[in-house]
Amino acid sequence: MTLFLQLLIQGLMVGAVYALVALGFVLIYKSSRVLNLAQGEFMLVGAYICWQFWTSLGVVGFPLWLAFPATFVVVFFMGLLVERMLLRPMIGQPVVGVIMMTIGLLFFLRGVSTLIWGGPALTYVPPILPSAGLQLGPINLSLEYIWAFGITAALFGGFTLFFKYTRMGLAMRATGEDEQAAQSVGISPRQVYAASWAIAAVVATVGGIVIGSMVSISNFMSDVGLAVMAVPLVGGLESVLGVMIAGPIIGVAENLSVYVDWTHGGAKEVAPFVIMVIILLIRPYGLFGLKRIERI
Amino acid sequence: MDLPCGTFNDSYAKDMAIVRTRTQWVMLFMLLAFMVFLPFLLARERPDFLFLMNMIGVSIIAVLGLNILTGYCGQISLGHAAFFGVGGYTTAIFMNKLVAASPLAASWVGLPVSLVLSGLVAGVVGVFFGLPALRVKGLYLALITIAAHFIIRFGFVNWRSLTGGTDGMSVPGAQLGPIVFASDRAFYFLIFTVVVIMVLLAKNLVRTRTGRAFIAIRDNDLAAEVMGLNVFYYKLLSFFIACFFAGVAGSLWAFYLLSVHPDYYDLMQSIMYLGMVIIGGMGSIIGSIFGVIFVRSLDHLVLVYTPALSDLFPAIGAKISAGLGMMVFGLIIMLFLIFEPRGLAHRWQLFKASYRLHPFSY
Asked: What is the pTM of this model?
């Protein structure tokens, strides 16, 4: 029972991190109907850039508190650049082209980050998140997870309000719903797309920094990005709430898969995908996704 | 149609012929003769050249299948390497059992039977993972095929009694009666014989009723259904055909490498296959061939020049070998999508047109 509780709580916490990463997918999809498969690479590059400011420049006296704003500014412009250079020419192209574009970006970013920061995994020195253990009754928890959970919750609260009350948030939703109608009421889809890519890059970076400080920074992060793909699909690609619920579902399922696992850890890797396929077969648009009615 | 001036089709057979004029026949035979002599030309100076050619041949078969699925029928698959792997594993398991049961039978019918059997098994597995295509499409289907890829690989790694797990399996050498395919050159002829058969198969398939149904589904599957096509049947059929091609290719590759291992069939391969389809040109048979040659050769060039580059920049030497290939592949895909989304096949069309019309512009 203790083991079960431990796995459950840990799964919830890991799920929160997944939800944080998956939020980036949703942000872009919600406004531009593009699923950015390179989200894991955004995480990776963001985490590396933050490492550059935090650890390697920190040694020569770069003020630590400036590391985060500096990182966010860099990835913000990276997001803008990616949208302008790569995704704008793809407007109106078939979906396979758009998917391949993000895959091309995935390989490009992975290659570049390997060329610059490749080799052994990097860690943040000094550590960003406190890593002390925490005893909650019989359950053992690391403080990092609680921090990660807190950051995720704060971001989700922020984005829920953003999409509900701000002009840009509403413009993003409107553009995602119907681009032409949005244009006709004076929204500029270009600005919306650019903003959503830039914001998604920043969110991915936050996820990257959190994971990077919990584990370490290396190529495995982009695999996390692929596995996390299951989360927005289960939750529904347009739904912030869906991601918030699907993240913990996937996290818990991954952790609880040890009960049916006759292999050693293998089931953990496929559990998200199995759940994704099952959910998509029952509800093709995810738990909270919008069902689109197609007309000829 | 792009026929030279003065060529008229006065019968249905002539209208449907793939090779139409005498020049085209001559070119075709020159190409075939060139293909026959190719392994004798370069093989001595560059022993890796034949390996590259064989890889290209096997990839052509797999990519033809993927192009039928993605380029003609519009169903995106990012799990093609897994079906390729199913073909390889089928061959390994079948051949090992057959050799144990009867070495004589294995030496005579082992090769052709396992080629076909691998295709069929991969096709059936493909149909199973294609079932969601009835309910989801586009992006969602692409991600389901990624899931299929991970699930199938999970099977390779963990179904130890059948697949040998992470140890992989060895495959008996390919043999057809007295002919033993032991050298790279022998395999070259085997592989390219199969390639020619598969290209003909694919070329003819896409102009039958089935092929046209695929195109209708790609262009608008709702409209296709309204016109009376059984969309579900044709989508599953496209998955079956695509995975059949992948299975045959996987079988050949398993025979060639004499082993199968889960690591041969990673997601990178699946994505490269889709990249070849894009670069070559979606919905084009000749495009599949161009795409494979382009990507595989580029990949090989990167591999060949990596050591030199590492010497040039010793500070990041090790990183170059890990990162450069990925970077170049990603860059090429992005550039093609921006500047030539219709792929090399379109360039080929333009070239042929300008050649045919030479002194005039139209």
From this structure: 0.90
Which tokens hold the place of B116? 């076909």
Å between B78 CA and nearest CA of chain A: 10
Contact check, Cβ <8 Å, A277/B338: no
b/e per residue B98-136 (b: at least 16 CB within 10 A)? bbeeeeeebbeebbebbbebbbbbbbebbbebbebbebb
Amino acid identity for residue B178 in this structure: P
CB contacts, 8 Å: B298 with chain A = none
Cβ of residue A226 closer than 8 Å to a chain B Cβ = yes
User: Residue B319 in contact with residue A119, Cβ under 8 Å?
Assistant: yes
The per-residue pLDDT string of chain A (296 residues; one tens digit each, 9 = 90 and over) reads: 778 888 888 888 888 888 888 888 888 888 888 888 888 899 999 999 998 888 877 777 677 788 889 999 999 999 999 999 998 888 878 888 888 899 899 999 988 988 888 778 888 877 777 777 777 777 777 788 888 888 888 988 898 899 889 999 999 888 888 888 999 999 998 899 999 999 999 999 998 988 888 888 888 887 788 888 888 888 888 888 888 889 888 888 888 887 776 666 677 778 888 888 888 888 888 888 777 777 76
Interface subset of B 303-322, CB within 8 angstroms of A: 316, 318-320, 322
Q: Which of residues 86-145 of B touch A (CB under 8 A)?
A: 132, 135-136, 138-140, 142-144
